[in-house]
Amino acid sequence: MRVLSHDDLAAQLRHPHGEHALAVADAMNRSNGDLNRAAIALLSITPGEQVLEIGPGNAAFAPDLLRTPRSRYVGVDVSAAMVDAGNALLAAHALQDRAEVRLGDAHALPLDSACTDAALAVNTLYFWDELKFPFAELTRVLRPGGRLCLAFGDATFMRTLPFTAHGFHLHELADVESALRSAGLTVQAWRTHRETGRSNDGREVTKHFHLLLARR
Is 50 left (phi over 0), alpha (psi -120 to 50) or beta? Predict the structure, then answer.
């Protein structure tokens, strides 16, 4: 993949498409691997649960979410390229009977109400203009007692990444917590996640993320 401008990189991170889509997905998986694994551990899937992932990309971390016996998985992504790549990956892992990736948007999830036990969204908040609409949808699809894990970059850290100036919405931790409460979700746990590694633009950085666990 050629080096993308900050504007092009931001557009690809928001909606992977065209000739760079698969390379961008691979870069995101490398950059966000430790954060995804931390979020999955916090979500703590139990046997038989229905799991939803918002913005799964090519569903690289779905096999980790499906390690628990009888668990089932639906990923929802805005990118048709990622939906195709995600379903191909699930088939390659012989998981297609328990999992699928669907085309859709967090503002109007293609799911029935109260169908989900556990939901996960890693590094997706930046692409939501307002939090209240996606959070209302997530509340709708969660069963009573269902839980949501959000993982997102600390706003101060995110501002140090040049590509985030191109259409990213950087939400403060307190604002995310407030929006969750307004949507009828109770914040039950907060974790900070720090690591040194490469950002999506290839720079070596010290990363700072928040993980929130909320329950309906």
Answer: beta
